Amino acid sequence: MIARTLAATLEQAARLYPAVTVIGPRQSGKTTLCRAVFPDLAYVSLERLDMRELARSDPRGFLAEFSDGAILDEVQRAPELLGYLQVELDEHPEPGRFILTGSEHLVLSAGISQSLAGRTEVLHLLPPGLEEIRRFPSPPASLLDTLVTGAYPRIHDRGIPPDRWLADYVATYVQRDVRQILNVGDLQTFTTFVRFCAGRTAREVNLSSLGSDCGISHNTARSWLSILETSYLVFRLPPWARSHRKRLVKAPKLHWLDSGLVCHLLGIESAAQLAHHPLRGAVFESWVVSEIIKAHLHRGVDPRLHHVRQTRGLKIDLVVERGRLLFAIECKSGATVNESFLGALRTFRSEALLDEVTEEVRLFLVYGGEEAQSRSDADVVSWERVADVDWTLRAGESA
């Protein structure tokens, strides 16, 4: 196991709350992390049918068996347990007694908000970020290899060919988890929908168009996209809404949270294929967005992220809002920097500073080359150094 960035935040939360909840996609490393950080706690997997039935049929008896606390893995399998856990934590509120993990944040978050509000801190663990992937013995050496391989830890830890592992992951997800989250009658159509979503990574969401292409209704497309979000496979990047001076497009952008998974769904099996694929730039942009999301979540910081597109003209791939400080970020997968890449960033800064709320705007161009460059008004960041930037700073702080 590699050291995970979230470990320090997880330990700190366990010193403050009687329970800590870790949510994230399947196979992101939640169980491994929690068992490593809390080796003295009993471990219970609610994927096991016998333990799940016990937790559901006799929740008081189940909790009595673990009066000293436990790691309760995949707790969304027994949502009935959360109400009884609330009583247990109220009667014995010692910090760090229970560590909960879950893979479906919609179901689990509803249970937490109803039963465990104020008694647990909710943390999010995604597949490793670039800084964490480098801790594996043989991390990918090039940008394209990094994108095609993706970040799921089992691929790196066990040396499994990415396309083979990801094929199994998609099959398991479609055949089992989808049926448990929502009753999808036509799995073949849903699989087609997932692949169409992959083809729209880094594009604005148009549910009517997406549904029409897949032969489903607008409402079904909305529901199925929510399933992908619930399982932490995709992220809808909301539009920037602060400016009142320009007409802004209000559609969110769709980003897949793992580049290897989106490459697999697009039929891209190698770096050589990706190099000449028309969606290379989109895959890279989504990868940058996911890295910045991970930089926030794995430090226990809520990411406030947006994209900008005016109805005529200005487009910004990503805006990170940190109080009165904004990071404006453009993503280019090529290895050559063109001065024209910075034009939109400079325009955005000029307009954003007219807003009294904004104190500072920092400009970044993240690109596929290897050399970092510092311009007088912007930073050009190599893809290899995207994890070296502290994206969680606030106004007045220095990196």
Could you please describe the fold and organization of this structure?
The protein contains 17 helices and 14 strands. α3 crosses α4, α5 packs parallel to α6 and α11 crosses α12. Helix content is 42%, strand content 17%. It folds into 3 domains: 119 residues, P-loop containing nucleotide triphosphate hydrolases (Rossmann fold, 3-Layer(aba) Sandwich); 149 residues, Arc Repressor Mutant, subunit A (Orthogonal Bundle), CATH 1.10.10; 94 residues, Trna Endonuclease, Chain: A, domain 1, CATH 3.40.1350. With 399 residues, it is of the alpha/beta class. The model has no long low-confidence stretch (mean pLDDT 91). The strands form 3 sheets. It has a 6-stranded mixed sheet with strand order 9-10-11-12-14-13, with helices on both faces. It has a 5-stranded parallel sheet with strand order 2-3-4-1-5, with helices on both faces.
Short account of what is shown:
With 399 residues, the chain is of the alpha/beta class. The chain has 17 helices and 14 strands. It has 3 domains: 119 residues, 3-Layer(aba) Sandwich (Rossmann fold), CATH 3.40.50.300; 149 residues, Winged helix-like DNA-binding domain superfamily/Winged helix DNA-binding domain (Arc Repressor Mutant, subunit A), CATH 1.10.10.10; 94 residues, 3-Layer(aba) Sandwich (Trna Endonuclease, Chain: A, domain 1), CATH 3.40.1350.
